Protein: Pyrroline-5-carboxylate reductase
Amino acid sequence: MKNGKLGFIGIGNMASAIIGGILSSGTFPVGDIYMYNPHAEKMQRFTESGCVACTSAEEVTELCDTVFLCVKPQIFPEVLRVIAPTVAKKNADDVVIVSIAAGVTFKNLQDALGADRRYVRAMPNTPLLLGEGATALCRTSNVPEEDFARVRSAFSCCGVTQEIDEAQMNAVIAVSGSSPAYLYLLAKLTCDYAAQQGIDPKTALTLFCQTMKGSADMLLNSGKDPQALMDMVTSKGGTTFALLNVLKEQGFNEAMISSFEACTHRAEELSM
Ligand SMILES: NC(=O)C1=CN([C@@H]2O[C@H](COP(=O)(O)OP(=O)(O)OC[C@H]3O[C@@H](n4cnc5c(N)ncnc54)[C@H](OP(=O)(O)O)[C@@H]3O)[C@@H](O)[C@H]2O)C=CC1
Ligand SMILES: O=C(O)[C@@H]1CCC=N1
Structure:
């Protein structure tokens, strides 16, 4: 029997962003959110909001019909071993296991918890915390629409979601999961340069962040592709041309592509 309860195992950066986003949106009753983390203090701010702290991963799995595994890929074997007996006691229809881990495959989950269980993989990102996340999702073929919609709503209440094939899950990490880091790097480099030139750091950050937001809106809503938008900015013989030329000369494009490949490759290595 399904009870609508959402359980989270591993309350670190990402689970905190997801739970924080869910709480801000009010999409799920706060008392339906269960969680477990070895260091209990990490759950405190959510228990203060009305979420329920459990004393073990088994307890979360026993009490909830949608279980989000939010530990590091390296901890997965241990957590899967711990929850396997509890998952085995449930009817296959009564539990959906959601993994947000980089690289951990459906095969890894099925080998540990059973091929007849229902699985969803998600690749979210930390802006979920502000309701501005981006999450790629995929499911095993036995996950019915109703169960998938429920999992999806935990992510879509705090950002956009897109369903993709499992074969694309490692490549998509460079697009949603990891990509905030290179955008923050760009912000840091830009603002550090501005500060060196005597521009007030807050002023620079405000200008740069609005530029990222506005550029994202142009990409989504102007009807123009990235190259056309770059061309609109680039006057012949002007400043943007000079900027892009140095990036080209110094191998920026190749470095970015190599970094995406490294990201995907690392996810493949993290598979169990
Ligand atoms: N950070 C990100 O931006 C994103 C992360 N992910 C994925 O999310 C997952 C979690 O990443 P992230 O939140 O950054 O990692 P964190 O290290 O911040 O969180 C992991 C949490 O797991 C807890 N934990 C450790 N061992 C156990 C255990 N045996 N049982 C239950 N909980 C345990 C840790 O608790 P304690 O500290 O007390 O040991 C910690 O709070 C990873 O698989 C990652 O691939 C996906 C997309 C984006
Ligand atoms: O760095 C990581 O491995 C995780 C997965 C995506 C973002 N953070």
